[in-house]
Amino acid sequence: MDNISFEFFPPRTAEGATKLRQARAQLAKLKPEYFSVTFGAGGSTREGTLNTVMDIHREGLSVAPHISCIGTSRESVRALLEAYRGHGIHRLVALRGDVPSGAAGGAGDFQYANQLVEFIRAQTGDWFEIEVAAYPEYHPQAQSPADDLQSFVRKVNAGADSAITQYFYNFDAYARFVDDVRALDCNVPIVAGVMPIVSYTQLARFSDACGAEIPRWVRRRLESFGDDRASIRAFGLDVVTDLCERLLAAGAPGLHFYTLNQAEATVELCERLR
Description:
There is one protein chain. By secondary structure, the protein is of the alpha/beta class. The protein has one domain (4-273): TIM Barrel, CATH 3.20.20. Helices cover 47% and strands 14% of the residues. It has ten helices and eight strands. Strand 5 (129-134), helix 5 and strand 6 form a beta-alpha-beta unit. Helix 3 (74-86) packs across helix 4 (113-124), helix 4 packs parallel to helix 5 and helix 9 (229-249) crosses helix 10. The termini are close together. The mean pLDDT is 93.
C-alpha cells in the first residue's frame, strides 16, 4: 500500500523500548513512507524523542521527528535541527504542541506553529520537508472555524510542505476541511490521520482531550460491548476500514496511522485496505 506512515511515542522504559522495536519490525514490512516520533507536552520527552529517532534511523528507516513550540527555545530547536541534519534526516513534523498539565502557559520562544516553521526555514532552507497539523473538526482552542482555517493557512505560508490531520471518524469533516482550505488558495497535500479502535475507554479519553468527535452511533455501539475487547476490536476494524476506503476513494494523498506503539490493529487495517 502506497503513502502510509506510522506514528510512535518515545517509550519510557526498557520494556517499552523492546516492545516498540518489535512493533516497528512488523510495521516496517508494510514499507511505510516514514515513521514519526512525538515530542511530548512541553517537550517533556525531548531526549526520548531524539533517542527513538536515532534508533529508527540506524535501522535504515525513514523517520520524521516531531518538534513543538511549547516550552522550547530558539537555541534548543537550533541544536535539534543541527543534530537531525547532521544525521541526514530530511523530514520534520512542526507543531505548536500541548501545554503540560498544570503549566500556566507555553513559556518559550515560540507561541504558534507558523513561527516555528519560519524559524526552521530560516535556519535550514529547503533541507527539511516540513509537515504541520490540520484539524478537520477544528482545534479545540480555536475561536471559530474561520480562525482555525486562517491559522492553518499561516502555517503553510510560513513554509510547510504538507499536513497531517488529527484523527477523525467523520469523513465529511475531512472532505469539507479540504474544500475550505482549497477555497483559500492553499494547495498542500493533507494526509488523513487514522486512529485504530482497540479500546473504547482509551479512545473516549483521547477524543475528549483533543476534540476528535466519536459519532454517536459508534460511541453507543462501543459502549454496548462493555469489556468484550474482541467485539470492540472487530467493530472498530470495520468502522476504520470503511473510513479509510472512503478517504482513499476521495483522493486523500495518504494515511497516517496513530499506532500507540502497537502493530496488530494497524497491520490488519493495512492488509484489509490492500
